[in-house]
Amino acid sequence: MHTRLIAWCWLIPLSAGAQPFIASYEHNDLEKCIQQCDKEIDKGGDKQLAYLYKSKAYHRKYSADNSCLTCLTKSMNSLEMLAVKDADGVFRQGRQADTDSILTDMRAEVREAILSGPSWFVDDLLPRMEKFSDHYYEKYLRGLQATLDDDLYQATKWYNEAARQIYLEWKNGKQPADESLEVFSALGDGLIDFNDHRSAITVWQRALKMYPRQEVLPAYESFLNQASHNSLVTQNDSMLDIYLQAYDSLAIAFPELQVNDMLTGLLLYADEYRDTPVNFIAGLVCARYPALMPVISDSLMQHWESSVAFTVVRGKLRSTWDQEAVENIIQLSTCAGDAGFEGKPPAHRFHQLVSSDPVMAAYWYYCLTEHGQNLSEWNADLSLLTGKLNDMLEEQFTPELYTARLALPADKKDELELLDISLRMIKEQIDQGDFSGSGEWLRGELSRDPENEQLRALYKYWVTQDYLLNLEAPQSRRSHLQWKGDPDKCDAGTLPEEAYTDFMQAMNYLRRLAGVPDSAVLLPEWNEKCQAAALMMHAEGHLSHQPGSNFQCFSKEGQQAAGMSNLSLGYGGIPALLGQVYDSGSSNGSVGHRRWVLTPYRRLYGMGSTDDAMVLWTLGGRDANFDRNITDQYTDRFVAWPPEWYFPAELMPYRWSFSMGFADFSSTTIRVFHGKKEIPVHVLPLEQGYGQNTIVWEIFDLPPLDMVEQSFRVEVRHVLVNSQPMDYTYEVISLPIME
Fold first, then answer.
1. First to last CA, the chain
2. DSSP conformation class of 727
3. How many domains would you assign to the chain?
């Protein structure tokens, strides 16, 4: 019995632990391990085990030192030699955990090299890894490499090979690893790049069957959301149906999913970014997704609310909103009853807004009437809303509330009540010093009711108070500029901060009187250069927009400012500003100085002044204009000087002007009447290029203006605005203030 046991022991192979290269590997003596493996191979010993540990040792060397790139290739060399010596694969099958561990780490290292570099060894290594293991990941890595090389065809080809292998293995009973889902994600993206949306969705639908739903569903939902939205921007409308079918299939396969939220997002995105017919979304929802009606309607209302804008410009209600959103909501209401949708969307939303947001309720009512809706059934809610807005206006007048009230129907009694509220609140604004808001509101009211004596009296009060507080007072406060400079010493000097404040108070007064934005400001950097230019003009004794180096007190800064500015000589500060707006003199027939001071577009200016010269920077500069949401109205809104309605007699020029955006005045005629008498006018040659396009005429036969009000009717005929002839008639009333 004892002898037979010994015989069997001799038949058992030598224990792996007895090999010296294994002990060296376990003690991390990798060079010694490699040398011992080579000796074992050379002497014809256990070559299979030696090649395995030689591969493991080289791989561990690379893991410890990533700069040893040859270690990876040498590790692969050893694996390939192992395959040669293990022709029947028995050894590798018994040590699969070891070879899998090496290859798994090697794949991660190759991926990192592809993504971050260096990757010069990848082209050699990847095909050899693939041949050794026939694993899907090597194909995926080839696709990743091709993607980074912008070879989309090869990338998609390799991703497809990898996905095909995973799918076939799954059909044969092998459950894919969770991380292999990235192959399907990459393949789906690649197919999208080739505009093959149907195949991309098919790939993901296969993945839905193969992977745990907690892994695949978030990735698939993300893919559908991004791919569908991108395709709708760049592709034809047939793409929408492809993705709707995909969402429908998803809802059938997973009824518990919130697919409706995704569908809603897709439908609204399609409506916003595709050139879809009016009512397209509503028609689709009614026919195919009636359950989505409430959420689609609410979302469309949110689109409308975010787009709506109402203003009053010169007495006229101006409004913009998402037209298609309103049309779709109206269309939804036609099929709401069939779908059991409680409350037709427009009426239901109006009823809610009356209670929660009266301003938006008024806008909603106005929009629907503009879309031809018969709203007689809403009279009870309309009456409630009208009363609520009236009460809110009585409590606190705001332009927003007033605009909302104007959006609703009004009888004569309502109009009188609104006017009374408006008059009281405008008077309060004037007394509080808000000349900007009160002036714009007054112009609007007068445009709507130009003969109203109360409005005219209030406008006279506004003109008088604004003149006294914002033009006369700054001039009185600064009888001179307190300029601290000396032209004899070429000392530009400085101005006190109050001088700049007073100057802009007066300048914004003039702009407000003309009906243009009155929040212009001075840029300190330009002020310094304008001060240098003012010194040059003062010292030289004459003006030039291109002063040479021979100018007295010449400086580069002053030269630059002179070329960008209005120039005045003989006075400084506010008097010089008034002179530029008056713009007399034979060389100023185009009133270019006035046009630059009163342009509705410009926000930034610079100013420098001595006692005898003033320079006002009016050209160029970064972000020098007001935002377009402020200035767009001046495309078809004129700027006149003297302006419409009451105007201080103290400022009345003999040279009048009418400006508008890019209007064409080449065939325009001017007539001016004082009462029934026509006054002769002399229209000057057109000169454009200074602020807005402008026509200028002179009146030398004005009646005395210093004692009583004088009214003039101005008729400007045949102004081409966007190639359309337009006529304008307005009244100018000279108002003596300093009697």
1. 142
2. E
3. 4
Residue 377 lies in a domain: no
Beta-bridge partner residues of 735 = 648
What are the beta bridge partners of residue 486? 491
Alpha-carbon gap, residue 427 to 589, rounded angstroms: 39
Per-residue pLDDT tens for 113-132? 888 877 778 888 888 898 88
Q: At what angle do helices 280-288 and 259-273 cross, to 10 degrees?
A: 150
Residues 6+ apart with CB under 8 A from 709: 733, 734, 735, 736
Strand, coil or helix: 442? helix
pLDDT tens, position by position, 236-248: 556 666 777 777 7
Pure H helices in 43-95 = 47-64, 69-85, 90-94
Q: What angle do CA 532, 536, 537 make, to 5 degrees?
A: 120
- The contacts found for 554-561 with CB under 8 angstroms, 24 or more apart, are 557/528, 557/529, 557/532, 557/533, 558/492, 558/529, 558/532, 558/533, 558/534, 559/533, 560/529, 561/526, 561/529, 561/530, 561/532, 561/533, 561/606, 561/608, 561/615, 561/617
* pLDDT value at residue 193: 80
Instruction: Please identify, among 79, 102, 134, the residue that sits at the C-terminal boundary of a domain.
Output: 134
pTM (2 d.p.): 0.58
Q: Same domain for 619 and 653?
A: no
Q: Tell me: the pLDDT tens digits for 332-373?
A: 777 755 444 444 567 777 888 888 999 998 998 888 888 887
Query: Would you list the DSSP string of 160-226?
Result: HHHHHHHHHHHHTTPPPPGGGHHHHHHHHHHHHHTT-HHHHHHHHHHHHHHS-HHHHHHHHHHHHHH
Place of tokens 């402008």: 694
Domain that holds residue 468: 424-479
> If you count them, how many residues does the chain have?
739
d(CA 630, CA 633): 7
Q: Work out the burial of residue 390: count CB atoms within 10 Å of its CB; fewer than 13 is exposed, 13-18 middle, 19 or more buried.
A: middle
- Residue 602: DSSP 8-state: B
Tokens standing for residue 116:
């971050």
> How far apart are the C-alpha atoms of 639 and 595, rounded to whole Å?
9
Please report, for residues 183, 208, 375, 515, 579, the alpha-carbon distance to residue 158 in angstroms, rounded to integers and kept in the order given.
10, 21, 62, 68, 78
Q: Are residues 631 and 491 in the same domain?
A: yes
Place of tokens 């040498």: 74
User: Is the residue at 415 inside a domain?
Assistant: no
| Long-range contacts from 476-479, C-beta under 8 angstroms, 24+ separation | 477/502, 478/502, 478/573, 478/574
Which class for 151: exposed (0-12), middle (13-18), buried (19 or more C-beta within 10 A)?
middle
Residue 568, strand partner residues: 614
